[in-house]
Amino acid sequence: MPSNDLAQQLLRLHQEPALLTVVNVWDVISAKVVADVPGTTALATASHSIAASRGYPDGENIPVAEMIAEVGRIVAATALPVTADLEGGYGDAPETIRRAIDVGVVGANLEDQLKPLPEAAAQVAAVVKAAADAGVPDFVLNARTDVFVKNRDGDPDALLAEAVERGKAYLDAGAPVVFVPGRLTTEQVRVLVDAFGPQKLTTIGIPGTPPLTELQQLGVARVSFGPLSQQVALTALAELVESVHTGGGIPAGTRPLN
User: I need a surface site. Which of 7, 34, 161, 218 has the fewest CB within 10 A?
Assistant: First the structure.
């Protein structure tokens, strides 16, 4: 069931000066492990990781009903606010948001997929309205622009200018925060924060980006880790297999599951 109290809690976490960090989860057990670590204040799902765990490639190939069902299981496993990565909305973003709210989600990433800006901004406005109509007016829509991830070889100055334009349009359409994934430099982050305002930008913590302490000082609201958390977990699994194949075993310090 929708809970605007949890949405307000999640929104406050974005608005506080302290940087919100969310290590993304993909199923109930990963959600429980992350939630149980002291200092965790919210959970975020990773669409890529959920799809991969169920045998689908990334990019809205998983049926939306299957994605929502898995997200619902994660929500049911925690008392923390949960924000869901819902890709581009699976063809009907407002309806997908309504379905996510029905299972208790109080925030979401939504990709613009570089749609024409008027269309992308209208989609943000429609999603914000759908959330309010569903009883969650403080729903934390993290409006994502794919400017950098889809144009890795583009002119950095032109990409930054487009990210600023798109992000400001999404904020004007009602999104409380804007997600600009990519390997951003300190100066690019500073320009984005100056354009959007403090605690309005969210980024991804991929290798090569500024350290978390610096991002907090710059006024970034949140850093997430997308599919990288699953990659870390699966790397540990592969390394265990390699160790076993050479006569080793379970690494010292392995923690039991609760």
Answer: 161
The string of pLDDT tens digits covering residues 197-217 is 999 999 999 999 999 999 999
pTM of the complete model: 0.95
Q: Is residue 110 part of a domain?
A: yes
Question: Is residue 116, in this structure, part of any structural domain at all?
Answer: yes
- Please check whether residue 217 lies inside any domain of the structure: yes
- 215: domain range? 2-227
Instruction: Report the domain count for the chain.
Output: 1
171's CB contacts (< 8 A; 6+ apart) are 143, 178, 196, 197, 200
- Whether the per-residue pLDDT at 233 is higher than 60: the answer is yes
In a domain, 13, yes or no: yes
Rg (CA), the chain: 18
Chain segment 28-81, per-residue pLDDT in tens: 999 999 999 999 999 999 999 999 999 999 999 999 999 999 999 999 999 999
- For residue 191, how many other CB atoms are within 10 A of its CB? 17
Gap between the Cα atoms of 208 and 128, Å rounded:
33
Q: How far apart are CA 139 and CA 200, in angstroms?
A: 14
CATH number of residue 169's parent domain: 3.20.20.60
* Unique residue bearing structure tokens 């819902």: 86
Contact criterion met (CB below 8 Å) for 142 and 127? no
